[in-house]
User: What shape does this take?
Amino acid sequence: MEKISVLLIDDDEDEFIITRDLLAELGEGYRLSWSNNFERGLSEVLRGGYSVCLLDFHLGAQNGLEFLAEASLRNCTIPIILLTGQGDYEVDLAAMKAGASDYLDKRLLSAPVIERSIRYAVERKKTEEKIRFLAYYDQLTHLPNRTLFYDRLKTAFASAKRHGRLCAVMFLDIDNFKRINDTLGHTLGDRLIQEVARRLLKCIRKEDTVAHDDFNAMLDTVARLGGDEFTILLNEINEAGNASVVAERIRHMLYSPLVLEQHEINVTVSIGIAVYPTDGADIETVVKNADIAMYKSKSMGKNNFQYFNASMNSTALRRLAVENDLRKALKNEELELYYQPIMDLEAGRSIGAEALLRWRHPEKGLISPLEFIPIAEEIGLIYELGTRVFEILKRDYEYWGEEGIGKPNVAVNISPRQLNQRNILAQIVKLIGDLDIAPGQLTLEITESGIINNVDEAKRVIEAVQESGVKVSLDDFGSGYSSFVILRQIKFDILKIDGSLISRITLDDGDATIVKSLVTIGRSMGLDVVAEGIETKEQLEFLQSQKCRLGQGFYFNEPLPRKELTRFLKRESPPPPGER
Ligand code: C2E
Ligand code: MG
Ligand code: MG
Assistant: This one.
């Protein structure tokens, strides 16, 4: 067992001998050191390494209370037991207040008394440390937590201010962590966080996990704020540019893949940097701005770092606000579906409708999915959102059932991310059951931009979906890099030509030619072609002349709430048999 090391501070050598003999009575468990004056005693205590200190009340011209005050001022963490002599009795209360663990009357000192006092002091110290650890350190990584990090910032900013220097705060977020976590499971997700923490520590000036004295406060600090978010404090740097050296070091450090069980994972982080006092005069502002810069870095394609600059404010703040609100929206059921009829351009009547998500924000009104779907995708909320869309559909079909308009065909937009969801097929099968429709009445619309990164996986899921009888359409074709590779590799049922092309067919010959070819290509591949965003009669006539069979757009209808869709469908005469 490890010995309990005791420091005696007493100017009388006789007392040292007595104490030594008392401890010897208790066996081999103690090691005694001795300082014979105030100054030396103080520097020993602050140096650390002792389990407990026995302090004589009388130390030359000074006394034990002054010693205690001095020690606590310098953040001494060793428990101190005050030894009082004759007539010092009234000091006991003052001693406790000054931070002594215990006080003992020298005249009553015996081996058992001293043993008991030491044991209590040491045990209490351990408990205190445990509590301190729970309060100030992250249990998973043993890094400082948010509370301690903010403490450190306070000290660091104050000192930087005094010395006219700078501090940098870095905000780090693991790229795609949500997806990694979903795929690997939480146990491996936790291990990944631990490994990242370990590597981050190597990138700063000194390791600082469980700190035992506040000397460490002047070093750089890596902290975990929770989830996959880390922060780093770079203390008293000379120029803002120093932070980029650390950021580069971090990217380099994470460069070699992590191996967890048989998985090899490439981890990258997005980093935002804000500098005190340039980017903010107080802790809250600097941290918030580092966070904003981090978001900017994510939006710039991840795996990089960004310094904060004032122009980032508005977009990032808006984004953060949307993120918070969106979670509330799910909870408070603020989401609805609108339906835009899809028209047979020749017959002039609808063959179904596309369901389009709307967010009825309590203050901001109706918000377009273009504003919140990308954020939901980024923060992993898209799965819940997708599930909610299915739930709303179910409710709306029940409503239409009551209205007696039957069961319209419906096209639902799903995010390519949802294709990676393990239970997506089961969800779709359940949806068909819930709506009580034939599988062929349901179409899933997927945009190509998400598929392009993972064609093989998308192909597998899409084919499985089609196997169940559900149709799949390629949405927004012609909007981005329109990859014919996708069209060649994956057999879709429907091709939707993006509204941006349609809007220019009557203005630009080039675009007209492109639309013309897309219609031809689609048809020759056996796909149904839908023109999106038809707004004018001229556009409609052009598309009709090209034998584009289907279309939708404001020319016919804007997306309608379910009640108005009911009205629309009731107005339409029932189609002659065989046409649908
Ligand atoms: P999208 O699937 O291409 O939907 C067509 C968009 O064009 C809709 O925008 C629609 O309101 C709009 N639109 C329809 N007719 C016209 C027109 O004549 N002119 C113009 N300028 N626009 C027209 P919306 O509703 O804002 O949806 C935007 C996108 O958000 C959708 O594009 C779709 O990709 C996505 N989205 C919508 N609902 C969902 C959903 O439930 N889940 C997912 N993952 N994405 C959704
Ligand atoms: Mg769509
Ligand atoms: Mg579209």
The CA atoms of residues 56 and 199 lie 47 Å apart. DSSP finds 22 helices and 24 strands in the chain.
